[in-house]
Amino acid sequence: MTVAPLTPDERAALLPALAGWEPAAGRDAIAKRFVFADFIAAFGFMARVALAAEKADHHPEWSNIYNVVDVVLTTHDAGGISHRDVAMARTLDLLAATG
Ligand SMILES: C[C@H](O)[C@H](O)[C@H]1CNC2=NC(N)=NC(=O)C2=N1
């Protein structure tokens, strides 16, 4: 499904409001490092995100080392950051906070 990338105005309004999310190096994407108490907390977060991602049909790129989960969000179908990434970033922040 084709999704529109964010306009410059939308970027300026939406992206700075995403706490801890930064531009990913070398590509049009946003990235955040989530740090948990231990592996099982990190993996629990990933399990909750997996369910939300499947429901939204929007999937993170991520890696996990013990208690750290590095996430990159972009929309391949848009060729860059879209509203779907902003929505998913908010969902991830919520799921990381609620445990
Ligand atoms: C075919 C499938 O629906 C698409 O590839 C969806 C699935 N998940 C996706 N996830 C992400 N992050 N970007 C996409 O463009 C995307 N597109």
TrEMBL record:
Keywords: Lyase. It holds the Pfam family Pterin_4a. It catalyses: (4aS,6R)-4a-hydroxy-L-erythro-5,6,7,8-tetrahydrobiopterin = (6R)-L-erythro-6,7-dihydrobiopterin + H2O. The keyword Oxidoreductase does not apply. It comes from the Bacteria. The keyword Lyase applies. Transmembrane segments: none annotated. Its EC number is 4.2.1.96. GO terms for molecular function: 4-alpha-hydroxytetrahydrobiopterin dehydratase activity. InterPro entries: PCD_sf, Pterin_deHydtase. Belongs to the pterin-4-alpha-carbinolamine dehydratase family. PANTHER family: PTERIN-4-ALPHA-CARBINOLAMINE DEHYDRATASE (PTHR12599:SF0). NCBIfam families: PRK00823.1-3. This is Putative pterin-4-alpha-carbinolamine dehydratase. It comes from Sphingomonas canadensis.
